[in-house]
Each structure stands twice: as C-alpha cells, then as structure tokens.
Amino acid sequence: MDIFLLEDDDAIAMGLSYSLENEGYTVTVAKSVSQALEIINKKNFSMYLLDLTLPDGSGYSVCKRIKEIGDFPVIFLTAYDDEVNVVMGFELGADDYITKPFRLKELLVRIKSVFRRYNNDSGDGKIKVKDLVVNTNEAKVYKNGNEIVLTAMEYRLLLILLNNRGCVLSRTQLLENIWNVAGDFVEDNTLTVYIKRLRDKIEENPTEPKYIKTIRGLGYIIENE
C-alpha cells in the first residue's frame, strides 16, 4: 500500500519512511504544503499522514484537498493535542490524530485500525452498530436518527472500540491508543471516567450496556452484530 507522508522534519521523515517501508508500505514524502498539493493532485494514496505545522501553511489545507479528491484515510501527526485542534481535524474529515512525540508501534496500530475501518464500513463513511451510526466524514454520532454530541476524546474512544469490533481491548491498550502514555502519565481512573461518560450518552441503560460491554478482568468490547 502507498502511504503519503507530509513532514518537514528530515529526521522524523527519514525515520518514519524507513520504519513504514520495513512494514511493507511504499512511502512518498513531501516537506511543504505546496509540494504536497503538487503530488496529491497527480496521484492517489492508500493513506495520508499529515503534519499540521509546515513552513508554508497547515496540514489542514492538505487534508481538505484530499477529501475533495476522494474519501481517503487521513491521520494527523501533531504537537497539538488540545480539543479545538482535534475537533477541527475531525471536522475536515481526518480519521485519527497522534501527538508527537509518539512511538512507532502506536502509529502502526493506528494505521492498521484506520485501514480496517475503511475496509469494514458501508462505503459512505458511516459505521453502523445496532441503532448507533457514526458518520466519520462529519465526525458526528447519531442514535435512532438523533445526534449525540461527544467531546473529541469521547469520539476518539468510541472510534477505537468500533475499529476493533469483536475484539476485547484491555485498559492498557485503550490508554496507549488514546493518550501518549510514553510522554505523559495518565491515571487508569481517567479511562473509567471517559467510559462512563460515553456510556451515559449512547446507552439506553448505562448500567446494562448493549454497546460498550465490560469483560471482567480483561477490558472492553463492542461486539459484532
């Protein structure tokens, strides 16, 4: 699969290219917005990894152009993890974001997860489980046709669980995918809080969840229908 990487830091670009190519991917690198637009207007890629801050602009504008061309998967690589930037990325159609500095293993998991979602969704950017519909093109969630407003972190947690439907995800796996635990320690109780908030919004009865189920001693799962 062909991966497009927009990154102006030579060391990061070289390291990522080498690692991704070792995983069997073909990597094309651009170091500026202008160079990126010139490349993506001529060729489509299986995945786009976009840095946000470039010498001549922002990765947001490149993401916007990608989504105009077609519904291709986009992951932002960014030093900004505040909610405003995350939501802006999702609203432009990005599928995920990962905060620098990050571990290669984490990025590879995110890439495979996004690829799996694209292979399993309905083709219109929508993921459907029971009465729940996630429109990834709009970064919006609906239940029985009514929109459920989620925070960026709640939305991201839901996507991770949906992208791994049928698989039990341990608390450690969820923490590693949601936060950069290599750089910042996050209390395990924080995940419990987000799970509860998410259940309160999407479940009819949060004490007897039918979407996000707890597998005692193992973790959480959204089951395949």
TrEMBL record:
Gene3D superfamilies: 3.40.50.2300, 6.10.250.690, Winged helix-like DNA-binding domain superfamily/Winged helix DNA-binding domain (1.10.10.10). The keyword DNA-binding applies. Residues 124-224 form the OmpR/PhoB-type domain. Residues 124-224 bind DNA. One of its GO terms (cellular component) is cytosol. The lineage of its organism: Bacteria, Bacillati, Bacillota, Clostridia, Eubacteriales. Keywords: DNA-binding, Phosphoprotein, Transcription, Transcription regulation, Two-component regulatory system. It comes from Eubacterium coprostanoligenes. One of its GO terms (molecular function) is transcription cis-regulatory region binding. This is Stage 0 sporulation protein A homolog. Pfam families: Response_reg (PF00072), Trans_reg_C (PF00486). One of its GO terms (biological process) is regulation of DNA-templated transcription. PANTHER family: ALKALINE PHOSPHATASE SYNTHESIS TRANSCRIPTIONAL REGULATORY PROTEIN PHOP, REGULATOR OF RPOS. Residues 2-115 form the Response regulatory domain. May play the central regulatory role in sporulation. It may be an element of the effector pathway responsible for the activation of sporulation genes in response to nutritional stress. Spo0A may act in concert with spo0H (a sigma factor) to control the expression of some genes that are critical to the sporulation process. The modification 4-aspartylphosphate is found at residue 51.
